[in-house]
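Sat 14:20. Reprocessing the chain from the morning session after the first attempt stalled halfway. Input below, unchanged.
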Amino acid sequence: MSAPPLELGAVEKGQTTSMRPRNAVDDPQSRGDDMTYSAAPSRTFGQKIKKFEQQLVAYNLEARGIQRVEPHETHAVTWKSYVQTFLLWFSINLAANNITLGMLGPAVYALSFKDSSLCAVFGCLVGSIPVAYIATWGPVSGNRTLIFARYTMGWWPSKLIVLLNLIVLLGYALIDCVVAGQILSAVSPNGSMSVVVGIIIVAVITWGVTTFGIQVFHYYERYAFLPQLIVTSILYGVSSPNFDLTTPSTGDPRTIIGNRISFFSICLSAAITYAGASADYFVYYPPTTPLLPIFTLSLLGLLLSFTFTLVLGAGLASAITLAPSYATAYSDSGPGALLVQGFTPLHTFGKFCAVVVALGLIANTIPPTYSSGVDFQMLGRRAEKVPRFIWNTVGVVIYTVCALAGRNSLSEIFTNFLALMGYWVAIWIALTVEEQVVFRRRRGYDWEVWNKREKLPIGIAALIAFLVGWVGAILCMAQVWYIGPIAREVGEFGAD
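Finished this time. Tokens:
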């Protein structure tokens, strides 16, 4: 971030009157409903929470939650701000979870290296475009991503979007923790470190970074890509001789087509699900920020990092058919162990590199953890009063417990969770674009009413459209537990 440290720090802490205007949290009359909290115990509890939050502000904790960032609270944009936009997305996705995602092409869908790579690259390209589009709404509106959803879906229906997005955010963090745990366990002597320990290490470090808010978040992501770029480049070099570049995809023609579509869909879903949070990270950019550079740099950061990692994962998994050691690592201990196997020619240094890759997952876990704290506040007036850092803590506890419970089922979580979550995001993006292009083309948006229920749409039409979109998704989905009638027409396993 390029703002003067004193000014940006004051904005994030909310320490000055001018940098923190009255808003719906501070002013009961601006809440947009007739809810009152007259019970003395509730007021006392709220005062204690607020006092505790103010004490933590002294340690550079970001106090702001879902409150809109007013134009005078933003920071100046320089060339460093644009570089930060690119590095943010590049650091987030240059991570081991995307390497293990790329493994699904050859390992689960029986696709060749070429088919897997093409489906992965074009899938993440299509999925990254909506993410870059939503990112531009941060500077324009000053609102968090799903506050903006209130203008499309209405006050109450937008809460359904928030719940679905919370599942996405915590689910991604769950996957990151499991992958990191598998890697750290695989590099420990004779697997002496449990996957459980690795999961807890990543969760605790992530909690520490996200607790202190957007300034620490951006600073971490600014440099997190560098060690990851080095060690993944090394992994390319030492493992590529084992890549199987010749074996074709397995199955009859219709089944191969179905598997290509399904893998393409999973890679698309891996990218597009960032759309539910992408504006959160740019709300301190001023409304005058040119949107084309934000869109372009976001898209480039996403596409390059996804391509680099997904193709590497496809290559590692393709080696299963040629290298018995790769096959054993994958079948015995999962995708994390297969990644570690790629480093084995480097012996001790290879294990060090694998540890760096595992810790690099923190950069991927921070954004969903941070955004989950904001999204929890959107669930209701009382939830809004709970500080963001407390909700961050709740989110960390939830996904850590789930990661511990599902640590032996990573591939199943990937293939079922990612595709399923991609459906609702695609539907919401379609409604958002339609709202902007058709219904608000002339009258635009009044960002001042972000928290005034009576001035926001009711959302009945948007909710019906959203549910109709789900009908189409159900007809076309292909999951382990269900294959829709349309999806069933393509090959032996359907096409998602």
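The chain has 19 helices and no strands.
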